[in-house]
Write a structure and sequence with these properties.
By secondary structure, the protein is an alpha/beta fold. 26% of the residues lie in helices and 28% in strands. The chain contains 6 helices and 11 strands.
Length: 212
């Protein structure tokens, strides 16, 4: 966490946090502002597995950070130890690490925490699971190149016809994503928006692989 400078009472202080401006009065944040428009920007949510392999998460984040349209990354973890480990590794202002105290609950609890934490002015939301084998930066770039010009709402990477991860959602589906639950989860959403879904054929087999 950044160490804030002690200022005189009544002093208005501006701090830049990624793309947003935060205004503090007497040490308390009073409001924040965003650019009026952030076109073609993505937010990434990483929902980690119960047995987190820090080095795998770290490599995925390193490769994702190379995207020039990246807005922010939110990682949801299940314990304080993992949260502190990731915070030590990544001190970037646009990377948030959040603790889900109800981690044993469904993955949708973590997903919703991530959705509420990402920058609201993104164009697309990338959903990545913590047990995903790290993908090359070139793979993420290829996904982004296919997503940006499309008017579809959901994008699914494939390898030799088999569907994999990460899934990419248009920000227009934010309300639908927030309403997901165990009984009506992502498979339900894929059926609902089947005609607005696009598959992205890739040559990277790792879109199908998870870390054991």
């Amino acid at each position: 966490m950044k160490k804030k400078v002690k200022l005189p009472a009544g002093f208005l202080y501006l701090e830049k946090e990624g793309v947003k401006n935060s205004y503090y009065l007497n040490g308390k944040k009073i409001f924040e502002t965003f650019p009026l428009e952030l076109k073609d920007k993505i937010s990434v949510i990483i929902c980690t597995a119960k047995k987190l392999k820090i080095e795998k998460i770290e490599q995925n984040i390193i490769n994702i950070k190379k995207l020039n349209i990246l807005l922010d990354i939110v990682v949801i973890v299940g314990n304080e130890k993992d949260r502190q480990s990731l915070k030590r590794l990544f001190k970037d202002e646009f990377i948030k690490v959040i603790l889900n105290k109800d981690f044993q609950d469904t993955v949708y609890t973590s997903l919703k925490m991530g959705l509420r934490a990402i920058n609201p002015r993104n164009s697309f939301i990338v959903l990545l699971f913590g047990n995903q084998e790290p993908l090359e930066a070139s793979t993420y770039n290829e996904i982004v190149k296919r997503v940006l010009p499309s008017n579809r709402k959901i994008f699914i990477p494939t390898y030799e016809g088999e569907r994999g991860h990460p899934l990419v959602f248009s920000s227009s589906l934010l309300r639908d994503l927030l309403s997901l639950r165990k009984e009506k989860g992502i498979p339900y959403l894929l059926r609902k928006f089947k005609s607005a879904t696009e598959e992205i054929a890739l040559t990277d087999k790792k879109v199908l692989l998870t870390v054991n």
